């Protein structure tokens, strides 16, 4: 391994050690019972909750997928980020305070499926089982997207030969998975949240520093704009070549926030009275991070053009800039930021998947009298099983991060978004309506992807899935309300 690569590896190794250390700290603090392992005892500091929600949300697509899209198509792709920002803000205002209150009110629910079953007891088993299946399936795909990001990082950084006898891509996938597994299995929710906080800080620093360095290196923002105008006169246009369908599909990413279990579970864990503070911190962090990601994609394209470089995979522009513009030790820090984005999301998704398998399947169907220690141990086994499935999916080096994320994001957004929002705000919603919305949203998204309708129409699958689920909940609840009076609030 070359000296420069050795220096980068040292920086990455220090980052891995820090994450494992946090995992050990959390293991000693909050893994004695299920509430501690799955929700950190509902005592999460607002700042930790805010950055944990942001870091687990933004994943590798913030440093890989979104900059890559901007690198290829220009500023028009920024509408994805704008849609996400609006959706996240509404999520913090509408969903967060209500979910924090009602999950305690309805039987101190530790998972989203458990909350839904307590909210609609007449359909408790159906809701828990279907929710758990959807969570595990889509999160396995989502986790695979993160591992693909880890593989691409190593593939683009260590291009000379093999790493530990493996191809750089395969080594990246396995190393990312193993470190995430270690601190997630050991420390549970508190470890995931604390590592997310640290990772969120690292990510935002990298996203501020990198575009500034690139812009100054290319002679300032004006010169960067001139270079991009030479690439395409519409490259810096907000609407250049953008159709109405394309605009709506980009903005519609924001709809997904209301149904992302790994994000909204943070609302359940924040300490009492801390939602507003967490919202302000989280939205400020998100604004800076999104602007930085846009800068990486646009300034990165200018740098590549101005210096006659070649970039085969647009999603690796962050990695290319890190490797070519900075000292190896700084490069290691920047690549750690990328790993932070990847690992923060994978760990959250693995833990939510584990919680569904343990609380909504194992306890419900296998051992309802399982001890707290047994449930924590089963949860760790489930984390391992889901991660192995994700590794299998991520084994294809041609996988696209943004594509995998968009599919999983749409699946959760359509299945859970209308369901969570209406269950928190509409008292007349029934259990039958909840089941109808959950199933309809998931099936429409899966069908839309499977039949290739999105490819032919350009309509992002979350739009038809979200609308269909909302209508299904409303219509079925209206039809069944008279035959089941009082069901919607009977668990209060």
TrEMBL record:
Its main location: membrane. It comes from the Bacteria. The chain crosses the membrane at residues 6-27, 48-72, 78-96, 125-149, 169-190, 197-216, 236-259, 280-304, 316-342, 377-395, 401-420, 432-451, 457-476. GO terms for biological process: proline transport. It is a multi-pass membrane protein. PROSITE patterns: NA_SOLUT_SYMP_2, NA_SOLUT_SYMP_3. It is found in: Cell inner membrane; Cell membrane. CDD domains: SLC5sbd_PutP. GO terms for cellular component: plasma membrane. GO terms for molecular function: L-proline transmembrane transporter activity; proline:sodium symporter activity; sodium ion binding. The keyword Transmembrane helix applies. Gene3D superfamilies: Sodium/glucose cotransporter. It holds the Pfam family SSF. It catalyses: L-proline(in) + Na(+)(in) = L-proline(out) + Na(+)(out). Keywords: Amino-acid transport, Cell inner membrane, Cell membrane, Ion transport, Membrane, Sodium, Sodium transport, Symport, Transmembrane, Transmembrane helix, Transport. Catalyzes the sodium-dependent uptake of extracellular L-proline. PANTHER family: SODIUM/PROLINE SYMPORTER-RELATED (PTHR48086), SODIUM_PROLINE SYMPORTER (PTHR48086:SF3). Belongs to the sodium:solute symporter (SSF) (TC 2.A.21) family. This is Sodium/proline symporter. It comes from Croceibacterium atlanticum. The gene is putP.
């Amino acid at each position: 391994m070359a000296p420069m690569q050795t220096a980068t590896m040292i920086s990455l190794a220090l980052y891995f050690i820090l994450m494992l250390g946090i995992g050990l700290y959390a293991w000693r603090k909050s893994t004695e019972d299920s509430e501690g392992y799955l929700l950190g005892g509902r005592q999460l500091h607002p700042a930790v909750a805010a950055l944990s929600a942001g870091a687990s949300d933004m994943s590798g697509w913030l440093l890989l997928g979104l900059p890559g899209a901007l690198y290829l198509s220009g500023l028009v792709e920024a509408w994805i980020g704008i849609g996400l920002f609006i959706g996240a803000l509404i999520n913090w205002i509408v969903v967060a305070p209500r979910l924090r209150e009602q999950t305690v009110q309805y039987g101190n629910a530790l998972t989203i499926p458990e909350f839904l079953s307590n909210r609609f007891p007449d359909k408790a088993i159906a809701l828990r089982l279907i929710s758990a299946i959807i969570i595990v399936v889509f999160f396995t795909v989502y986790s695979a997207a993160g591992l693909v990001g880890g593989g691409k990082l190593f593939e683009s950084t260590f291009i000379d030969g093999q790493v530990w006898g493996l191809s750089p891509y395969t080594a990246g996938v396995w190393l990312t998975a193993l470190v995430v597994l270690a601190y997630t299995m050991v420390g549970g929710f508190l470890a995931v949240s604390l590592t997310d906080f640290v990772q969120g800080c690292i990510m935002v620093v990298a996203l501020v520093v990198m575009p500034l360095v690139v812009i100054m290196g290319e002679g300032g923002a004006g010169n960067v704009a001139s270079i991009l105008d030479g690439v395409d006169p519409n490259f810096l246009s907000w609407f250049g070549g953008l159709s109405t369908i394309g605009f709506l599909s980009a903005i519609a990413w924001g709809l997904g926030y209301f149904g992302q279990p790994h994000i909204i579970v943070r609302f359940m864990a924040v300490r009492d009275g801390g939602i507003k503070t967490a919202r302000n911190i989280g939205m400020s962090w998100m604004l800076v991070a999104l602007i930085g990601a846009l800068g990486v994609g646009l300034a990165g394209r200018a740098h590549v053009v101005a210096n006659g470089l070649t970039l085969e995979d647009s999603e690796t522009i962050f990695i290319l800039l890190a490797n070519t513009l900075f000292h190896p030790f700084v490069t290691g820090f920047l690549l750690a930021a990328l790993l932070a984005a990847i690992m923060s999301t994978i760990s959250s998704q693995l833990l939510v998947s584990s919680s569904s398998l343990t609380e909504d399947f194992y306890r419900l169907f296998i051992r309802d009298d399982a001890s707290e220690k047994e449930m924590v141990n089963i949860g760790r086994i489930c984390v391992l099983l889901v991660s192995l499935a994700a590794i299998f999916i991520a084994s294809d080096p041609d996988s696209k991060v943004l594509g995998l994320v968009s599919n999983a994001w749409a699946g959760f957004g359509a299945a859970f978004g209308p369901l969570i929002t209406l269950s928190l705000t509409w008292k007349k919603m029934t259990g039958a309506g909840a089941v109808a919305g959950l199933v309809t949203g998931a099936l429409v998204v899966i069908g839309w992807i499977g039949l290739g309708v999105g490819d032919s129409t350009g309509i992002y699958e979350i739009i038809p899935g979200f609308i269909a689920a909302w209508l299904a909940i409303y219509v079925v609840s209206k039809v069944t309300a008279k035959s089941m009076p009082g069901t919607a609030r009977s668990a209060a």
